[in-house]
Design goal:
The chain has 368 residues and is mostly helical. It is built from 19 helices and no strands. Helix 5 packs across helix 14 and helix 11 packs antiparallel against helix 12.
Length: 368
Amino acid sequence: MADLAAAIRAAAVPQAVGDMEPIKNMLSERPRNQRVDLLKGIAIFFVIFFHCYYHSPDALLQPVRNVYLHIFFFIAGLFFSLKSGFPAFLKNKTERLLVPYAFFCIFSAFVFLLCPWSWPTIYDSDMSPAGNLLKFFLRPTDEPVWFVMCLFWTCVFYYCCKRFFSSILLRGAVTLVLAVPAYFIAEHCYGIINIADGYGLVAKGFSKIFFGCHIPIALAMLPYVFLGDIAARGGILTLRLRGLRRTLPMIAAALLWIAASQTSDVSLFYYYLGNNVLLNNLASCAGIVFLWLAVQNVGRRVPLFSYLGRYSLVALGLHYIFFLLLASAGISGDMLCFVVVLILTRVSMPLVIRYFPRFVALKPLFRS
């Protein structure tokens, strides 16, 4: 507040237009929600753990699988708004999600080209250079940055749901009607693609685009955006429970999260989708409740987690580059891989933030 007061006092003195810019930036900057940053930071920590230490016991790994990406859909719902029209909304989501997606595709391609030991893992020696280039740019749909595209489509679909269904109950019902069949379609992804291959080029192309853009998973995640939206309307962002009112729900949510997670091997991506849709999503919801209650009374930054959360998109895009480089060198699936990737990600993040802010949603790419 002292800095803000000083800026206001300084604004009372005539200054050059250039000198007024920092004051305008300070007045227009919105304060960050430290608990949301912390929650996103924990989720990113889980993402890195999942990819780098996947040989851990199932009792530990499966609860992580049930929340590590679901949290981001819930957070998207917390801040969902219809204040802008659809063209402005689409432009915003393109800048914040699709541009970073394309950036990390190109950036990772450049890094891997500079690291020849990764080529056997990344590229196919039986394909032409042009074919390898095309395969590489399609490859991110099979890697963590696929989630960014998936989140984009989920936000677009939820915008339509919220625009056309003002009733909360009706909107919730619509998200479920869309999500449940989409969940099972996603589970049978490869079988459907194989069937489509037999119906000609058009059917084959449509199925590739449909699953390559992760439309089924985007639809399956609609209820999490809806729950975040409803939670925000209910005041969850300002909720402060203390004592037993917080401890008892935390214990109950933790037990439910861990118990329900043991029923099947589940993750958002097709390889790990379980067949018990009710228990899988019950575990995910319980895990989100537990983690939100765990961070809700934290009123300050927690250095590593808060930083990872504030720049979660950068951490998401960078960590898998380092993981693939280590995996190509024969280092993966153990604690060494996890620690090294975490350190390299944290050290390299400031460089991307400083030199490429417009491509990782930290500054507007296009002028309004």
